[in-house]
Recover the amino acids of this structure.
């Protein structure tokens, strides 16, 4: 069934509440494991229907945020989803208190109960109204970015449409595009500050109502972080600072030499090669056709998966005005269908986004066999292993997209994968500071960002751009507004993906089998157990970051980038 044929019907929260309450009451009264199993599956069916409708509404809204009907449906779910979450939490409380728990664990596995214990710590009736306000503020931020119409090159451009000009070989063009891009954020600075200030206050209040010292503990519980904590994350950040930051400084010096500049300004960072970046040789339709060939050759499973995505029109890839400035994969459980959303703009990011989101979608497709929602949807840091690793697993097919520039692409891709790590942990460190200091003013937050930025990314030269010099760069990072503490996930997963990249060099077939095994496992285990299942080392292990950096640097050093 094509996405356009998916049935959408607005669910009634009143009906769902009655169904949940009746089933939870039956569950609590059930005197056998078998009866409780039946009720769990009935509740699961209700959840699948509700969350499918919610995800379809979100996809439609993000495709066109200017459509009044789409906005109306999204607003509805912003209002009722906290009430729905409260109902799920009540079910989880009963589940965890079941006298038949040991029998249920034999049937469904222990991860369901670990997830349940984490989720019940994140909600109560006393914060439902605040959760509704949080939803509306997050979507106000998304719509604000999607509304951008920036006059440049005699056209009104969205943010993604402006990005190719920031890679221009002409320094004046990329400088102008860069200033236009950030000029939009500068022009909205007061509104961005207001939205975030309200979000911080709301989240802090909810945390205190739930008994937390601040939002950090609640943020971790929301992200279902079961087998690691903030102290382990802090040590991870310190290792990135120690082993990765010096390498990035060297890579930027190498880039300056490569493009013929004495010093890189921030608007020069996007141009990787004097001859121009490696860009795909066709439009999105052509890219999808090349992707179909690639995935059929990669494995029978990926070939079947990509046919499913194309035949059912489960991708929206073009960038256009009114479309949300993001890339994502959403899973619609009622139809067992992933959906890929992207903003292709004729840069190499078109390919990394395609392979990245296809990694998410492939995992969803491979773990459709799980009957419980919890097991088709892994936690975020686990999910990002699938996406970031797929970017490297498909390396050998990059000729299909870049032709003679494929080696150029691989060089910039690995360079950017390493360069991302300090930024990824900076975003996380900043969020820890923000929620440990919720009364800080907007200007104090920006000052702290700029202070941290100089520590994690010392190579940055903003060339006097006032908005960025004052510490405003973080305001384009949607995760900070919309999904707090969802960012270290990318850094943790990148260390896993870099391990996959190294393993590919020695045994591609075994590495691909390990990757497929990981995708099939879905969310049936917590993060560190999934890492072990895939034959990888934990990102928290003492030497893993250092060894990943060494292997990556070795590969980059063996490439003669002067020929590019």
């Amino acid at each position: 069934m094509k996405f356009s044929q998916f049935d959408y019907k607005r669910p009634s929260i009143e009906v769902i509440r009655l169904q949940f309450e009746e089933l939870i009451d039956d569950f609590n009264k059930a005197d056998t494991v078998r009866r409780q199993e039946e009720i769990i599956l009935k509740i699961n069916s209700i959840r699948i229907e509700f969350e499918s409708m919610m995800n379809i509404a979100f996809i439609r809204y993000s495709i066109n945020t200017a459509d009044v009907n789409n906005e109306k449906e999204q607003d509805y779910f912003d209002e009722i989803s906290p009430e729905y979450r409260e109902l799920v939490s009540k079910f989880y409380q009963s589940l965890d208190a079941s006298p038949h728990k040991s029998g249920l664990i034999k049937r469904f596995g222990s991860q369901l109960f670990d997830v349940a214990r984490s989720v019940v710590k994140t909600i109560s009736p006393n914060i439902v109204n605040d959760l509704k306000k949080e939803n509306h503020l997050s979507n106000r931020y998304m719509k604000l970015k999607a509304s951008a119409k920036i006059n440049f090159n005699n056209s009104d451009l969205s943010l993604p449409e402006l990005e190719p000009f920031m890679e221009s070989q002409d320094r004046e063009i990329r400088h102008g595009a860069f200033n236009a891009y950030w000029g939009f954020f500068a022009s909205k600075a007061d509104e961005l500050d207001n939205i975030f200030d309200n979000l911080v206050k709301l989240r802090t209040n909810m945390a205190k109502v739930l008994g937390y010292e601040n939002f950090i503990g609640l943020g971790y519980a929301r992200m279902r972080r079961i087998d690691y904590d903030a102290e382990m994350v802090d040590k991870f950040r310190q290792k990135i600072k120690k082993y990765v930051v010096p390498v990035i400084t060297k890579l930027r010096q190498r880039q300056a030499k490569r493009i013929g500049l004495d010093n890189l300004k921030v608007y020069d960072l996007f141009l990787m090669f004097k001859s121009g970046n490696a860009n795909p040789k066709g439009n999105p339709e052509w890219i999808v056709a090349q992707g179909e060939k690639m995935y059929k050759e990669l494995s029978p499973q990926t070939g079947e998966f990509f046919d499913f995505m194309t035949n059912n029109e489960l991708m929206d890839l073009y960038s256009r005005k009114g479309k949300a400035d993001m890339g994502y994969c959403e899973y619609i459980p009622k139809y067992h269908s992933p959906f890929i959303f992207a903003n292709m703009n004729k840069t190499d990011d078109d390919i990394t986004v395609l392979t990245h989101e296809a990694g998410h979608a492939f995992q969803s497709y491979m773990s459709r066999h799980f009957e419980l929602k919890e097991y088709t949807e892994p936690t975020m840091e686990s999910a990002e292993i699938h996406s970031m690793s797929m970017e490297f697993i498909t390396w050998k097919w990059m000729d299909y997209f870049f032709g003679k520039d494929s080696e150029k692409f691989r060089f910039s891709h690995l360079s950017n994968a390493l360069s991302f790590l300090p930024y990824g942990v900076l975003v996380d460190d900043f969020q820890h500071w923000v929620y440990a200091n919720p009364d800080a003013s907007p200007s104090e937050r920006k000052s702290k960002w700029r202070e941290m930025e100089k520590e994690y990314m010392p190579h940055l030269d903003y060339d006097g751009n006032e908005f960025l010099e004052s510490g405003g760069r973080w305001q384009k990072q949607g995760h900070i507004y919309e999904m707090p503490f969802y960012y270290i996930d990318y850094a943790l997963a990148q260390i896993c993906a870099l391990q996959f990249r190294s393993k590919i060099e020695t045994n591609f077939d075994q590495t691909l089998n390990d990757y497929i095994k990981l995708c099939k496992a879905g969310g049936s285990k917590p993060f560190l157990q999934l890492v072990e299942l895939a034959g990888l080392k934990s990102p928290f292990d003492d030497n893993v970051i250092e060894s990943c950096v060494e292997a990556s640097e070795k590969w980059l050093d063996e490439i003669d980038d002067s020929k590019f």
